[in-house]
Amino acid sequence: MGQRLRVGVVGCGVIAQVMHLPHLRELDDEYELTAVCDISASVAEACMHAFGAGRAVTDWQELLDMQLDAVLVLTSGSHAPIAIAAAESGTHVFVEKPMCLSPAEGTAMIEAARRAGVHLMVGTMKRYDPAYQRLRELLPEVDDLRLVRVTTLESPFEPYVLHYPLVPPNGVPPAMLEALREDDERRLDAALPGADEETRYCYRWMLLDNLVHEFNALRGVLGEPDRVAFADLSRRVVAINMSFGGVECHLSWVDLPGIARYRQEFMFLAPDERLTLTLPSPYLRNMPSELTVEGGDPGGPHSWSRVEIVSYEEAFKRELVEFHAAIREDRSPATDGVDGLHDVTLCHSVARVHMSGEAAVAPSQLTSEVRI
Q1: Domain locations along the chain
Q2: Mean of pLDDT values over 214-231
Q3: Strands 147-154 and 263-269, sheet pairing
Q4: Would the pTM count as exceeding 0.85?
Q5: In what order do the strands lie in the sheet containing 147-154?
Q6: Among 62, 105, 189, 302, which has the minimal tally of Cβ within 10 Å of its Cβ?
Q7: 127-313+343-371, which class in CATH?
Q8: In this structure, is the dihedral angle defined by the CA atoms of residues 181, 183, 187 and 190, taken in order, positive or negative?
């Protein structure tokens, strides 16, 4: 295996065209884009020409037959079938979040990668945000952390991608789309047996598709949560109370589709210091996150704040650099399969708290087999 990795991309939708494919082209010293795959032949062909891929196919199994070094799985459904098959072919695997739709699927993905001796990475890109990494440097110095507050104001994503030359999917057989939808439903049935339709929807789209980012970012700075005390899920508003090492965390997510004003804020509150990480829409390339640091004189009137712009480097690009480095150095990436499985397990626990009304202890805990 040379310095450049022969890579294939499965799934050429919005996030692939906006982020992953442009960054693979920029990282030409690290990656050779061997092939792209999409169920829409027109999208695959357009992306092949736009981003300099060697081939375009519509069947991911055909792509895995190309003796690639690595594959990026960016599809919208469960990533488990493609990731497991890729690992069994000896190919290193990067999957977008969420890694899968259930803890059982995630365990199977990890086991397949371990048997094959390949690396499995999950694309939770906020962990590679320079401002987030600055937060990780500062947070251990904060004494007596008392409350963590996370607020996400969701907004329509379309206004944030209008300026990109995106290729819409065309020509996909309706029968194929229906088969993919039914596959999703079967996997959700297995993940949450007995759940009502609304809970299944919120588990799939509010938790796994959206809040998995918030959970991963919190785990990255606070460790594994002790408890989920309360969870109320709906398509408009989500409210969750949890704790990390005895520190209470209140998480709110609200869908506000009327205006394109996305905002995500992580606030860490202590008596003498406050740290606030504010993240912009993830669809804007090189838009920096801001870290606000507040302090003051205890008992006195003097207080101060500063806003840090750490870097204009794109988190999506930095995670691809990490994937390449992990393969070259034969080490686990920072957000490996086990890390991703913690997130899926936490999402699953939150859904069960919502369903039962009972708190969950050690909600992201994995089985002993997965930890080894």
Answers
A1: 5-123+317-336, 127-313+343-371
A2: 98
A3: antiparallel
A4: yes
A5: 303-308, 290-296, 273-279, 263-269, 147-154, 247-255, 237-244, 227-232, 360-361
A6: 302
A7: alpha beta
A8: positive
